[in-house]
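Feature request disguised as a bug report, sorry. It would help if multi-protein outputs had a clear separator. Right now it looks like this:
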Amino acid sequence: MTSPTRLAFIGNSLPRRCGIATFTADLQQAIAKTHPDVTTAIVAMNDRGGPYEYPEAVRLQIDDTKLGEYASGAEFLNAQRFDLVSLQHEFGIFGGESGNHIMTLLSRLNMPVVTTLHTVLAQPTPVQRDVLGAIVDVSAKVIVMAEKGRELLRSVYDVPADRIEVIAHGIPDAEFVEPEAAKARLGFSGKTVILTFGLLSPNKGIEVMIDAMPSILTHRSDALYVVLGATHPNLVRREGEAYRKSLVARVRALGIEQQVVFLNQFVDQATLLDFISSCDLYVTPYLDEAQMTSGTLAYSFGLGKAVVSTPYWHARELLADGRGVLVPFGDAKAIGDEIAGLLTDDVRRERMRQRAYAASRPMTWERTAQRYLGLFEKALDGNVLKLNARPMEVTTPPNSLAPPQMQLGHFLSMCDDTGLLQHAVHSVPDRSHGYCVDDNARALLVSCALSSLGDPSLSDALTTRLAAFIQDAWNPDNGRFRNFMSFDRRWLEDIGSEDSHGRTVWALGECARSDIKASRRRWAASLFLKALPAAERFHSPRAWAFTLLGLHAYCETAPADAEAYELRHTFANRLMALLSSVETPDWVWFEEGLAYDNARLPQALIETGFATEMPAYIAAGLRSLRWLMRQQSSKDGIFRPIGSQSFGGKRAPPRAFDQQPLEATATISACLAAWRADGNPIWKADAGRAFAWFLGSNDLSTPLIDLETGSCLDGLHPDRPNENRGGESVVSYLLSLAEIRQIARGAATRTNPEWLQALRS
């Protein structure tokens, strides 16, 4: 077995007030104490209440709302060469939609991850299911604290049985003692103490227990109900102490002020153990069945206390076989009757205490630490075997197919001394249809992509020719680009479409950032700024999205351009408003129908949100892209782009044909943007499926590309491929190939120091 020597724990940490903070600190300390040769550290998540005065064990803090800090956290863990990361997961402690920000960190780690799930939902939302699935995918092992958790992971989330381990919640190793000495220390002598402790919130069911107290007092007039714990910080931030005051008022209305004590404290472990020791009975009247783990229940059980509880999942397992008593949810009479019965039957209560204490001995933190370390060793050994078996994994593309070589022969044959021709008959350029700025803008994007990839790039003369076409398309009289030009170089219109203008703005922004020639970068930035104002008047969502992609690139070169920065938010907010006005649970989209270049809309929101640190943009982009990918998947799981026969339909399922390369290219870019934003490996797999469409993994099982020339068929009809190989198709394929080759080489944007620096600012 490979034993870890450096362990990192990710989660909340004391002195932050929550159960996971206590668990993370207890587990870290247990391992540090029982194995002093193992170096341990905590990466602590900060909420709005932070930062906190953490102990030395906390080596790094992450603001849960700042995506860039998650990426920095991965850099730190990799640089410090930790052997393994133990993740403590609960949806509410990480930022992003359903806590998806954590994938930005996990996906960048070089070491195995073992995840402890503190909650497993029986009815997750689609986003929660996707997020948890992504975390499981990157985890070598998954730990739950109850058998119910294992059952749900298998039945709801399809997690393989060999990935799941059940390790009970740890407990302090305390002696079995009678309560009198602790009662004396706390001023409870002469009382029969009933205890509830933990952060106070409405789901704890304290009202039910208060309502049961008058009945209990008729049997034990010396009963004292102690409610120990501060109000949950999130509740305090929302409504102050209104909830606590409502409980006090309830007690007052029942006339039992002397029999119910509220202690608004978050106590240390020694004080907590004293309170537990002092009680004659512990009660958890929780209202939610779906509570997978309760640290308060585990601690009281571990100190050998008689427990009365509602039948939430953890309690149902822990208190079975006479180790405690279960009562229905929200039933004050049942709770009162059972507590009164136990408090008036010393023999029964004592037997229950002894059974609980004996059953809890394997749960001590020392034993729990041993089990965790044993599982960590298995994860490390499994990781070594995986690396030995798959040494080339980092150099293969998302769908495990070796990416083709970059071949430019057909693209070059489609270019003349004017620019890129629109159409071809089979593979022969068709001059009768002339040129368009759309395709030449895409060709300029190809030039930028190739210059940064290290593959054969376009000649300076050809790139200049493409730039000259765009320059000539500019109509300074109306501040718009023309689109169509005849073969004899006559412009066929004074104003092109909004979409063609937006796409050209995108190409100019990318050229301003990525072109290898400084003078051309300056030209692109200048024309970009001239063309930008017209886009503000556009009504096309795709034109907004294309412009946003251009702004994303341009703003990296001009971070001080406040007007450009504001325009990003203007266009992004327009897309957000569209989505909000159209979206329903079954139709998560910006428009009433699906058209062309669909994936560029979520891509624009994702990239803008990532660059501007606006989680709402990212969440909306991921949500709509996730829905789009469901529409673009066949029953067999292959990528099926939105067919052009779907255009014009209203909230209708997409038609399968005709399929065009443009859709696959947009999907690849959007999925890789999503992967860079939240780290979910599913996005890389989806990008791989979309690229495999070019290679023959499609409805016709027909490759669209010629590996020798780099040409690409114009699409797929229901019964045959379209044998023509026009300009749009070849640039679409080359753009996708450039992205896939970049990923295959491990040269993804996420490793760009300037990009990371911008995120941290």
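(second protein starts here, but nothing in the output says so)
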Amino acid sequence: MTRFRVTLEYDGTDFSGFQLQPNGRSVQGVLEAALHQITRETRRVIPAGRTDAGVHARGQVAHFDCDTRLSPNDLQRGLNAVLPRDVAVLALEPAAPDFDARRDARAKLYVYRILNRPEPSPLRARSHLHLRAPLDLAAMAEAAKSLLGSHDFSAFRGAPGGVPEDESPRRSLDRLEIVPSGDELAIEARGRSFLRHMVRNIAGTLIEVGQRRRPPGEVAEVLESRERARAGPTAAAHGLCLERVFYDP
């Protein structure tokens, strides 16, 4: 039996999330079905993090155990041959027997992408939130600074439901930046772990700052309040992408 580490890319638009769903299409479901088709084994695929419905990934990491004679290259090619077009295995390699994609992760980088121009973009409609009016990027960057470090992020926590999570709302952000590039911008958030909808709730709040609907200094007050109702709306899922998962060398 060999434990494999895989790096995945997927377009989350047509998925109900990563985790298996009783009545919905999931990334985990299509991966496990593809693995069974290639190896004739029924194996569980464990991800570094469970992305929500509509959320994408460029660098999701997962592990699974498999008793196969196929080489890693042949297994990767076989999986990509049978997977649907919205999921791809970017890398596949043997891992240590005790490697755990979730518990061994040291940090995750999420990126929320915004198209900021009057005209829509058909090519970016599935991966960027479209906002027509110019955003105040300096104000957004100023507000983001108040969220860096370790805090109680209850004000940015999603509503109860979905995947059970740690009871503690304390999380740490070591990076929260506003990165412009041409007619788009990215909100880049990196931390060890995140609460449900945390990045999207932060993005929704920073967008309100960029729209001058609230001053930058108010974000620190929202954080301190620990009240979800005081933060901004949950930004649309399609703008969010799990960009990378970090591990010790």
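Even a blank line would do. Unrelated, but nice: Strands lie at 2-10, 46-47, 56-66, 87-94, 107-116, 129-131, 149-152, 170-181, 184-191, 240-246.
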